Amino acid sequence: MTEARESAGLNGSAYTPGTPCWVSLMVHGMAATQEFYGELFGWEFQPGPQQLGAYVRAQLDGQEVAGIGQLPPDRHLPVAWTPYLASDDVDLTAETVRHCGGTVGVGPLVADNAGRLAIASDPSGAVFGVWQAAAHLGAGIAGVPGTPTWNELVTRESAGVAKFYETVFGYEEEPVVSADSDYVTLHIKGRPVAGIHGVGNALPRDRGAHWMTYFEVVDVDAAVALVVELGGHVLKPAHDSPYGRIAMVADLEGAAFSLVRTSR
């Protein structure tokens, strides 16, 4: 992980291709989930595109930060936060995903006048979205409490899957040189935008490879206590790291995410 940084696309311009521009969560209980995240992060909600079912956009101080959608009752899919990576041409990106050994599960399709999207998985099975902006550029605010500040792929080993993302999105890689750490930071135009963490046999069997979203908070310990009070649970207790204080938690339906107070 790295410290929070200014993101492209926050000043009315499109995100640079490859940059995480949005996060979305598909759940069974929309009302309870909105209440949970509203209390935790101070989010308010407005309706969004409805092609994939009921969908709302979370807002903080009037700026859009994330999406929450309704899973069909008969779809027993894992409930997980999914990052969307910006693309100038989602059809070409989807074609490249397939060519490089990934899978496209949804789309590409049009989301009203907001843009075009696809949902794909990399060769390790981790799910991510691709977003080609039109009216909706993506998150309008970042780096403040209540917003996503980092996205990290947790996988068995970084080398092979890093090549996939490098080919599909044009990332430059910067490995962390350490005898006991397998970590690659992905850069766009010299700026770190995401990470890949190889954890070997510590990869959770029930989840497999997955993307983890980090949300900035003012006080990690207080936020963890609030998660528990709201009906969520703790996956990894709060602890200090070189990048700030971090904890991993899960919401009412088991969607895992991390809380971080980044070092400034």
TrEMBL record:
**Listed PROSITE patterns:** VOC (PS51819)
Q: Which domain of life is it from?
A: Bacteria
Specify whether Thylakoid is a keyword of the entry.
no
Q: Which SUPFAM superfamilies match?
A: Glyoxalase/Bleomycin resistance protein/Dihydroxybiphenyl dioxygenase
Which Gene Ontology MF annotations are present?
Answer: dioxygenase activity
Per the database record, which ranges form the VOC domain?
19-133, 147-262
UniProt keywords (A-Z) are: Dioxygenase, Oxidoreductase
Q: Which PANTHER family match?
A: CONSERVED PROTEIN, GLYOXALASE-RELATED
- Protein name per UniProt: Glyoxalase/bleomycin resistance/extradiol dioxygenase family protein
The protein's organism comes out as Streptomyces dioscori
At the highest ranks, the source species' classification is: Bacteria, Bacillati, Actinomycetota, Actinomycetes, Kitasatosporales
